[in-house]
Design a protein that fits this description.
Order of helices and strands: EHHEEHHHHEEHEHEEH
CATH class of the domain at 137-217: Alpha Beta
Helix content: 25-40%
Radius of gyration: 27 Å
Distance between the termini: 51 Å
Strand content: 15-25%
Length: 221
Amino acid sequence: MTNRYIMTVPEAGAILGVSKNCAYEMVQRGEIPTVKIGRLLKVPKKQFFDKFGLGEPDEDGDTGGGPTPPSADTAPAAAAGEQLGPEVVADSMLPAFPAPVPPVERSEPVVRRADDTGLLNLDYILANAAAFSNVSAVYFLCSAEEVVYVGKSTEVYERISNHAREGKRRFSRVFMLSCAPRDLDYLERRYIAKFQPRYNVIGKGPRCIVRPAEEACDADL
């Protein structure tokens, strides 16, 4: 059931006509108002629609109502439309619509994904390119079918490059979970407890001990 007071960040982005990633970037820049409910980030509808000049949502969460049904006075006339002039019939049967919503200034242009040959367009690539620096994430170094190390960084690409250059932890694949800097410590601890990677912990099970960073670097595979 649609919530009349809040919506998700992707839903707010869809209203503005931008991608999910762009919507979250707008949240980080403070362009989309949000509230935190537990560990979830939600968008309050009233503040959102007020900020972008879309008008307050109705009880169903919509920004505008549907067509207004004909009144009791016009219904008989509409039923006997063939006896009336064309102008009278048209006026009596037209529903009343709300005033048009002013256009929203978008931070990301709407572009075609690909050209006629199936190759991605330059504008699409540039509009959806991810940032390379100042990216906060918890990352997972993987080898074969195992997560061998879980780490965190606010410069995750540089940190992973350092791991590969130093060669102290052997891995062949990487997975990154983007998150806010304030959530890095919490998520890292949870995933270390969940996977107990060999470079992070000593022993297994609930009595495992998280290795100091320098000792984890020297662990043998």
